[in-house]
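User: Okay, second chain of the day. Same drill as before: sequence in, structure tokens out.
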Amino acid sequence: MSSATDTPDRLVRFSTVLVVVAVAVGAAIVSYRHAYELVHTHGEDGVTAFIVPATVDGLIFAAGMVLLSAARRRVRPPALAYVGLSLGIVATLGANVAHGWDHGPIGALVSAWPAVALIIAYELLMKLVRSAGSGPDEPSTEPAAATAPPCPHGVADTVEDAALNAFVHARDCVGEAMSQRQVADRFGLDRKRVGILVRAHDEPASADERTGASGTATQDEPAEVAR
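Assistant: Same drill. Structure tokens below.
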């Protein structure tokens, strides 16, 4: 079922990448030629004339890859990457504009267009790579966990109720049980009293056991018959 929907998406992505790469390559060749002719016209020749234009486009590529790597790793990119990208864009645009400046403003715009197309195509390609790396989350094949019911504890009216709620919540809801001594120390109660409260909660007893003093008989209990 998922393969039927993935096939059109893959075709769209593949065709988009193909067109973007084709535009980027064509624009890079023309932009490089403009920069080469400009450098050669202004006194550089030989290997230098070939290398200088490559440093401009290479700087854009290097800075863009650093930004892409930072985005994929979800870390802050270095400021130098932004500086390098900005300088490379200014340099390639300036070189292409200067190459066509002898033919007037129109010539400058025409000459600058390959550089603009290269920058836009490169950024589109980087966005495609980012989206491919972070793609949509795959549907989980594991059954969804049942939503846990809310904790059944009410609002505590007394310190003893609050101590009991804390003990039961840690044990039954959180799964990190507290000892009765820890609860007693936290709420300033006797540990034996905490034990009575817990036992009364786990095994409901008479109200007298919860309210009476530990280990003592209440007035409601029948008196022992004297022999």
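The first helix runs from residue 2 to 41.

User: Thanks, on to the next one.
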